Structures are given as structure tokens and as C-alpha cells.
Amino acid sequence: MRATVLHAAGDVRIEDVPDSVIKKPTDALVRVTASCICGSDLWPYGSMSPADGPTRMGHEFIGIVEDTGSSVTTVKKGDLVVAPFAISDGTCEFCREGLHTSCVHAQANFWDGEPDEGGQAEAVRIPLADGTLVKLPVAADSALMPSLLTLSDVFGTGYHAAVAGGVNERTRVTVIGDGAVGLLAVLSAKRLGAEQIILMGRHKARTDLGREFGATDVVSARGEEGIAQVRELTGGHGTHVVLEAVGTMPAYEQAVGIVRPGGIISRVGVPQYEEAPIGMESLFRPNLRLAGGPAPVRAYIEELMPDILNGTIEPGKVFDVTTDLDGVPAGYQDMADRKSLKVFIKP
């Protein structure tokens, strides 16, 4: 079968690899019908050394079940399913608490820990299929496919940022980042009733979509200028919640400058740093709290799916390019160059 393989920074190839097959009774084999490139894929794409490669890519996908292990009961051959970016059995104490990203029974919590599997491919072996996969009540050619695919990561991640930040109808919110996760954090904050949603981004096509999703204000400036503009929009105090969807130190420092006393910084951008200001003047004195983390999107799928199915929301608008597997290497480059927001793949 064919799959996407990253060999080193900037070196993505579509290669013939051994077919994925059932290995354990708890596995399912899924033929991929829809996948995509994630903003987090751009971190290794921009920095991975040849010594760390090659590695299979892709953690967001929808597909049709082709086979199941003898222990699988929740899905069967022919079912259309979506797979979250974290593998989980759905039964351990963390899964029962809604923290599927810490499942104790998953050998690898995330797809990048499964060395011979990846969603940007023709097929995938799904460990712990009963807990990981969610059946979709539509056909594989449904026009809802882009929006349903966002349930595998970016919509659930944006929603997790808002939920972890305590967004409600009384909160003012700033979203840092106009990538797919940031835009869907805007949509999520709107869904939760936020009275003011400030989107910080500098790509007009993206911020226009952010306004469509519910942003009340857009600030294109960064750093101290951006912080000042947000504070001006909020009576000088900043916002109750900051949803940080980038992952860099400047984005974190911007969040600290924007959040009002007693507020929450909710981070879902994959941090590209280990140390950050958390001391007396940065977080302690103003009673600021840190929240967020890798989103347990499996916990949100049943909650978010009905609004997609009935047309209330359309998170799939974050996809602005569609390609087949042959177009994936160019898709990576275009996303890295900010020519594309998010690339939808039809293997």
C-alpha cells in the first residue's frame, strides 16, 4: 500500500510500504477515505533530522472498516469510522474520567508512537479499536466529510481549549493563532456563548473565516503592540480567557500579557519550549491559571457531532485545499509557507 513518510526536514515522500494487517484481537483494519495534514505535522517537517527518520505521518482520518480482530465488538466490516489522534481503550480509569490521552492500556497514546502506521495512507491498523473508533452515521461520500474529519483533532482540540479555559457566556476570550485549531477555538468559544472573542492573526483570509466563526474583533499586531490593542479592546484589563493555539514562546508571553487578573491561559498549541515564565510577576501575583494540554478529543465527539450532522456548524471550512496522496508533499510545503490553511487528503 502507499503511505506518507517523512525522512527529514522538508523531505516528505509517498512510498510503497507493507500492507497494514490485524496483529491483535483488539485491532481493526481501516481503509482510509479521508485524511489531512495537521499544523502540528509542520514541527517535524521543519526540524526533523535524518537520524530521527524515516517516520510515517498522519493522525487524523476517516475510513471504512475492512477487518476486525476477534475481540472487537463496537464496529464491524463496512462501518465508516473516525479515529481520534489519541489511541484509547475507553475503559481505564483515565478514559472514564474523559482523559483518553492518558489511557493506561494504550502502548502508544498517539499515532506517532505507532512506527508502522499513519493516517496519511491508504490503510491503517487501529489498536484498541473498540475504544478508539467512532462509527459515523453517513456515507463515505457525504458532503459532511470535511467537517466530520475535524472531530479527529482540530475541532476537538479547539473545543478542549475553550472547555479547559472555562469559557461561558460571561467571559471575554482572546484566541492566539489563526491556524485551523485557533479558528476552531473561535468557533468553540462562540458555541459556549462567549460575549467577546478577539482573534489574533495576520492572514486576512483566515481572520475573515474567524469572523464567520464568531470572532468579534481581530488584532493583527503581535508582541507588545498586540497586547496593548487587546487591552484597549477590553477596557484595559485583558480577557478572562486566552486560548493559545500556536505553541511558541512568543505566543505564551503574549498570552501572559493579555489575560486579565484571575484569568486562565489555556494552551493547546504543542509547546516548543520546556521553560516559561510562571513566577511571582507573570502568574502568581495576578492569580493566573494555566490549563489545556493534548485534547482528549474522543471525549467530545458524541457531543460535537450532532451540530455537524444537522448543519448548525461547519468546522470543515478550515480545509481550503483538497489533494490525493501524490499531492501531499506539496501540501506540506504550502502549509509551511502559509499558502494553505489545511490540506484535505482523499487517498
Protein described:
It is a single chain. With 347 residues, the protein is α/β, with parallel strands linked by helices. The protein has two domains: 201 residues, Medium-chain alcohol dehydrogenases, catalytic domain (Quinone Oxidoreductase, Chain A, domain 1); 137 residues, NAD(P)-binding Rossmann-like Domain (Rossmann fold). It is 28% helix and 23% strand. The strands form three sheets. Strands 3, 5, 6, 7, 8, 15 and 16 form a seven-stranded mixed beta sheet that branches. α5 crosses α6, α6 packs parallel to α7 and α8 runs parallel beside α9. The chain is globular and about 60 Å long. The model has no long low-confidence stretch (mean pLDDT 96).
- Could you tell me the strand content as a percent range? 15-25%
> How many separate helices?
12
> Element order, helices and strands?
EEEHEEEHEHEHHEHEHEHEHEHEHEHE
Rg estimate, integer Å: 20 Å
CATH class of the largest domain: Alpha Beta
Major β-sheet, in short?
Answer: 7 strands, mixed
* End-to-end C-alpha gap: 11 Å
Count the strands? 16
Structural descriptors:
Quinone Oxidoreductase, Chain A, domain 1, 28% helix, alpha/beta, 12 helices, 347 residues, single chain, six-stranded parallel sheet, 2 domains, seven-stranded mixed sheet
Tell me briefly what this model is.
This protein is α/β, with parallel strands linked by helices and 347 residues long. The chain has 12 helices and 16 strands. It folds into 2 domains: 2-153 and 297-345, Medium-chain alcohol dehydrogenases, catalytic domain (Quinone Oxidoreductase, Chain A, domain 1); 156-292, Rossmann fold.
